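TEACHING EXERCISE
Course module: macromolecular assemblies
Task: Read the component lines below, then compare them to the predicted structure of the full complex.
Student: A.B.
Group: 4
Components provided:
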Amino acid sequence: MAWMVTAILTSLAGMGLVYTTWRMSGLRRGAMLTALGFACLLLVALPLWTAAEGAEIGVSLWLLGVGPLAWIFVVLNADRRPEREQSMPSAAITVPGLAVSGRQLLRSVGVLPLAGAAAAGVALVLASVLPWQWANRLSLAILAVPLLWGGAAYWVCADREPLRPLLVLALLVAASAAWLWVSAR
Amino acid sequence: MALGVGTVRNLLSRTLVKRSLASHGWLGLFSGALLYLICLSGAVVVFSYFLMRWEQPAVPEFEQMPAASLDRAYRDMLAAAPDISGDALLMLPQRDAPRSYAVSTAGAWFLNEDGSRAGDIDRPWSDMLTDLHLHLHLPHKVGLVLVSGFGAILCALILSGFLSHPGLIRDAFRWRRGGSLRLEQVDLHNRLGVWATPFHLMIGVTGAYFGIAALMTTLIAGVFFGGDRDAAIAAIHGAPPALEQPIAPAAVGSALHRLAEVAPAAEPFYIAIEDVNTPEQYIIIGGRHHDRLIYGEQYRFDTSGNYLGKAGYTDGPAGQQAIFATYRLHFGQFGGVGVLFLYAGLGLALSVVAVSGVNVWLHRRKNRDALNNVWVAIVWGAPLAMAVPALGSVASVLNPTALFWFVMLGSMALAQRVDDPQCSRRFLQRLTAAVLVVAVALHVWRFGVYAIAAPAVLGVNVTLLMLALLLAFPARRGEPLNQACPV
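Instructor-supplied answer key:
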């Protein structure tokens, strides 16, 4: 319990230091204090969390605790302004045309099944080439899929040329399927 | 700031920021409503064990169960259904979960301390909430994969959010409250989104895992193991023991005694009898290791209770340990009640991120239309729709899933009829508050002393009343009511 309290207080102190530095933005010492704040947060609080709860749970709590601690200072720093009356005129809902709906549907296909299939294919190729034991290769492949899928989905929506990511992802699906088919034979 | 602001700005070109913002906006609108339902129900489901106890407060509770009682419970299970097949499960009582129950193809029921049958498991409200979080009430296979897809989209939203935010450090603690509603929502969205990133990323990856795992196992089996799914599962989770024994009742009590000798540090929390009534039958005892994130180690025994070895989650390959840690990490099942509240808070914050993102988009538009009405009905109709089936649970008459969607649709119709989002929001909040108060009153009326005797059940009732208070008197911007408002 003592370790836990110390860990929380140290994390709070570290976040407080980061906040103080942020408030002093523009001062020359700002950069150094920021670094010190993060060092306090990273270097001191982490081993305390680990001592309190063990390595796995300690690291998890240390990471998860950052948000709530930061929000203490966000609330303290809140800039309260007089409310402004904001009313928007009412209008009839605009139904998108066929072309717009088609583009959105295509993008949805890119974001969900296509990006997902490409992510799974790349993850399996990765598993097939890594020199580790099966459990590690396969676990990495499974856990990497959401990250790869997320990256691909981001690209589908961000590219200026909407067809480019779709084509590349389709190619990736085909290439990874071919690679896996050949390596499985 | 000397450190940070310039660095982040230099890394992110104006074009990249613009394209990332477009991507973030599209993905957010695409997923907003369902992501909100998943996150909000997730924040509640964190307390599912408490909700289950609230639904059936009269079930006997105890923290220890003798091995002889477990033997009796298993024998009773076999007597009730001699041709039982598949796997059978006996959940053991623990300090923070002081109930025991048996699950098999013969049914699911609670156990008394002596192992005798105590009554059927019947928790329609918490099952409905869990089903909403895991499957969005869709058929389970489809729902699980769809919800997993939202885990991946959450990862995409985190990436696009960071790349579209060049003022990340400049605005690190900024929150403009009041004034422009859009700026208030922008700050709320960005601050909650950025600071809770470790939680969001973990939830995205582990949440996606549950649905992806089954699909990936099938693919892995096809690619690496000639279509043999069992071999693929064995490669990740370890192979089951190869046994050929005379068919006999499993000696669960003996296995439990043996566990105390071979793994004294493990706290047994479940007993699974695999392949019941077959020559391959074996016993798994799940042992909790409190300083680890893994769900538990699996200690294996043959039908007679002889120790065969462990699966290796405690000291096996890192990948195996990581896979077996996803459940407790996703649902906050480590570190006690404090961690549950941390998870609920962070889950609610993620719900607010989803809502405020859509709010920002709605406020950017010059006009207000039916979308504004539907959105406020989704946001404030969901808590109402989650609360109303609690009444059904207490009164035991209505299908909670049908009730949930009926209330959601009713909220949308009402919001469109009222055509004033602020007014609809206030009405739905107060109606939810009233429903929660009635649910607690009905609970106390139906269960009497059981509704206040156990701290866990009393805690749920007090929490529901506190939520009702918060919803009835929210600290909100003071929009004036118009005359058409039904409250």
